[in-house]
Give the backbone structure.
Amino acid sequence: MKKFYHKLFRSTLSTILTVVISCLAIVLVSYAATTISANIVTGGTLAVTGLSTFTTATSTSATSTAYLYVGPDFSEDTNMNFTGGDLMVADALNVGGVTYLDGALQATSTSLFTGAANFYSTVNVTGLATFTTATSTSATSTAYLYVGADGAEPQGWDFSGGDLFVTGDAYFNNKATSSVAFAVGSGTINNLDMAGGDLYVQGAAEFDGTLYGAAATFSGVLTASGGLDTGGATTDITLKNDETIGNATNNVITFSGTTMAMATTTATTTVGVWISGPAGTATSSLIVGGGAAGDAVSNATASGCIQMYREGVAYRIMVETVGTSGLRVEAGTCN
């Protein structure tokens, strides 16, 4: 009997030791690596302190205090330090809802595509940003802003300093002001330095209102279909060869040139130049100045003279040099 109990005790002890050793082996193997061929479902939190690799994973929520890496290994951006909650996605990322960013949105690859994006703070772009359509309450660029397709930039456009280029139409519902210059058209600017408020117009300019200015210079012909009004100023109008037309004296127009020619081909039966109005209206006078006292003695043509032509022959009408009255009509010119 004693021998029987001795065998039984030794067999039981052997079994217990076998179970204990097996459990310890399972624990040690599980601590190193665990492979689960079937699904694992947890009703609570699954906490992993080391690296976890999932071929596929589905979760209602996932939290990582360090980082979350989705997909195969790839070249991470230098800003990714694998701490503080970094998220790395090797391939496409599809978000069905709204994505909120408390920090910055940075696209370090070739492009960033969005169907629609709302930004509630400042969007800083250090490279080129291209928008098919864009709506903003304010937009700031320290270099330039280009709206529309590529076009031929005008003089002075250097892609810096806050330049604005619009390929299509630009409409301003309020004022458009330039503190330097304003150019309309793409012609060559020859006479302006485009500073101090210059205005350049390549083509025609139409003003339905009044045009005010201190001075005006025209290289071509000035046409005023509605008349030209100097505004009553006592000033001169300078002509091509520096002749002037002035009105320094009220109701008197002066000409600086020594000769005023009125070329006309009208027949003698048609009025060419009116000296006075038709009969029944107020009369006017034509005054031809003569020389000073005594000039008639030394110069027979020093008195006032009217020169006329008939069949190519010149005739002159002068005040008689002898006596105090009378006119003399004779062949010849006034000078």
Summary: Residues 137 and 174 are 16 Å apart (CA to CA). Residues 301-334 form one domain. The first helix runs from residue 2 to 32. The two ends are 175 Å apart (CA to CA).
